[in-house]
Amino acid sequence: QNVAKTLEEEQRAPPTPQEIKQKIEKYNAKVTNCLLMKLNDDGTYTGFIKVHLKLRRPVTVPAGIRPQSIYDALREVNLADMTDKRTSFYLPLDAIKQLHISSTTTVSEVIQGLLKKFMVVDNPQKFALFKEMRKDGQVLLQKLPLTEYPLYLRLLAGPNTDVLSFVLKENETGEVEWDAFSIPELQNFLMILDKEEKDKIQQVQRKYEKFKQRLQQTLKEAGGKPG
């Protein structure tokens, strides 16, 4: 809570160009890798943020589309537009994506950029960016407004991700708003749940089949022994 209060107090008064320059110099002095912030002539600055993806529900992506190449990215080719076929799958839990952004990049643009990199075609409104802060063994997770500037928060907190990190999660508003999903998405969810259920049943069956075999073997070995 103290960390959050400090950051909010600093945000209330817009920093002067000289203050920004000093903060960037102080930030870069603490960087232990090459991910420095760079001040531009127009007063804006660029840098890197890391976003942890902690999505519990499957996402919708184009079916049968290869991953985007550097050549595609340079040409700004949107592979998702090349097919109307869709499929759903779970992104790896706790995957981390590094983004190079500007001080003018908003939370909304960060979310859209992440979805584009993973070719996720779900509505960006289904997702939210959170800041996670640690202080004295406590963890505070706070949802960021869409107009917030993540790079400025990174600058204020310093490069240590143990102090502040960014997390992409579902935009929880209480109960799941199933009306926001299309019919194909809901059908894909059912298919995934059905497959997970069958896999879980098979795991339990294999577990008890092995237990049964070991028990029968033990009884067989003890059959000719007294007592």
UniProtKB/TrEMBL annotation:
InterPro entries recorded: RA_dom (IPR000159), RASSF1-6 (IPR033614), RASSF5_RA (IPR033623), SARAH_dom (IPR011524), Ubiquitin-like_domsf (IPR029071)
Residues of the SARAH domain: 175-222
Molecular functions (GO terms): zinc ion binding
CDD domains: RA_RASSF5, SARAH_RASSF5
Entry coiled-coil feature ranges: 194-221
Sorted UniProt keywords: Apoptosis, Coiled coil, Cytoplasm, Cytoskeleton, Metal-binding, Microtubule, Phosphoprotein, Zinc, Zinc-finger
Localization: Cytoplasm, Cytoskeleton
GO cellular component: microtubule; nucleus
Ion transport listed as a keyword: no
Superkingdom to which the source organism belongs: Eukaryota
Domain Ras-associating residues, every copy: 87-173
Subunit and partners: Interacts directly with activated HRAS; a RASSF5-STK4/MST1 complex probably associates with activated HRAS. Interacts with KRAS. Probably interacts with Ras-like GTPases RRAS, MRAS, RAP1B, RAP2A and RALA. Interacts with RRAS2. Can self-associate. Interacts with RSSF1 isoform A. The RSSF1 isoform A-RSSF5 heterodimer probably mediates the association of RSSF1 with HRAS. Isoform 2 interacts with activated RAP1A and ITGAL/LFA-1. Binds STK4/MST1, inhibiting STK4/MST1 autoactivation.
Protein's name according to its UniProt entry: Ras association domain-containing protein 5
Gene: Rassf5
